[in-house]
Structures are given as structure tokens and as C-alpha cells.
Amino acid sequence: GESVGLHLPTLSVQEGDNSIINCAYSNSASDYFIWYKQESGKGPQFIIDIRSNMDKRQGQRVTVLLNKTVKHLSLQIAATQPGDSAVYFCAEKSGTDKLIFGTGTRLQVFP
Amino acid sequence: SAVISQKPSRDICQRGTSLTIQCQVDSQVTMMFWYRQQPGQSLTLIATANQGSEATYESGFVIDKFPISRPNLTFSTLTVSNMSPEDSSIYLCSVELYSSGIWETQYFGPGTRLLVL
Predict the structure, then answer these.
(1) Cβ atoms of residues B73 and B28 within 8 Å
(2) Chain B: residue nearest A43 by CA?
(3) What's the gap in Å between the CA of A68 and the closest CA on chain B?
(4) What pLDDT is stored for residue B103 in this prediction?
(5) Architecture of the A10-110 domain
């Protein structure tokens, strides 16, 4: 079903450390997953995506890991910077069905 | 990715009135989507708008309240009709495009922040 958050979990990390944001998805038939970053006052920004036939994909400073056995997705951000502070959403999709969004995690980076 | 713009970026409206939100994309796209995001919450799909056909609405959303137009492959509008304070939200336009030429993914516009008094 729909995943609409009533509260926003927060992850606080020190600048320069690595961040790991986790997401548990609901549909075992989902075959496509996306991570979005949403800064205050802006629309969601595409970060990285992955298909279900992969378990890892790397981008610039970001890595997405997919564990289909436990329906778990994670986003790793290397050397976290103040500009990484935002709300991060995972999203899942099965075939041509609609995209389903997770509840979101707020990342706070402190000096 | 695509450059997606929305107008207005924000508005304050009186209850009972209607507001039309515009979404413009800099390339031709088949699939366009309208989402609502209430403060501090995740995104909820309102409807899918394909050019040349009627929009498809999600459960809980109806055409009379949220009429949508899709006159061409680069433009769409969403109207929030007979507004009430419960309609105060961020409304987001999204399009589906190929990501780095590999997979189709969804990209979002900047959003329209609506406050209904």
C-alpha cells in the first residue's frame, strides 16, 4: 500500500564522515528503485537508481545497495558535506505501476 | 534529465477559490505526473497525465476537484478547485525520462507551495 510518513526520522552526521540512509520497501515484486534528495523549498532531486538484477550501483560520492532477500535499500554518502543536508526519499516501482515513496529521512550534517 | 518549471512557485488563496498550476518541460515527454506533498510528509500521486487521453486519478482524488489538462507533450496544468485549508500543500509536477540513456526514471519540478486561508 501507500507509504506516507507521519514523522521524519533524522540522521545526524559529522562533516567528513560517511552517511548511511536505510529504506525498507514493501513490494517483493518491485524491480526498480530510486533515491531522491529534497532540500528545503525545492522539489525532489534524482540521485541514483538501481534495478533488481543488481545489488550495488555507484555514483559520484554515493552508492546504493539493494538486498532483495530482506527488501532493504540503502544509500551511502561518502565524505558527507553540509550541502548534503536534506530529506532523502527512497522510491520503489514494479513494472509499469506507479512509483511508491518511502517516508523520508532527514540528514543533518554538523561541523 | 529535463528542465521542469512550475508556475506559480507559491500562492496564498482564499477558501472556495480555484488555482491552476502550470508545468512546462524543455523536452517532449509521454508521461507526466502530479503529486501532492503535505508538510513534513512524503509524496502522494494525484494523477497520471498522458497527452491525448484523459488523466488517470489515484484513489482519493477526483477530476472535479483536480482537473488536469495535457494539451501537448511539453505542458500540463493541474487545477485545485473550490479550495479549503486542507488543500494547503506542495504540488509537484513530474516527468518520466531516460536516465543516462539506460532506464526511464522520474524527474520533478520545483513545486508549487499553496496556502489556503
Answers:
(1) yes
(2) B110
(3) 19
(4) 72
(5) Sandwich (2.60)
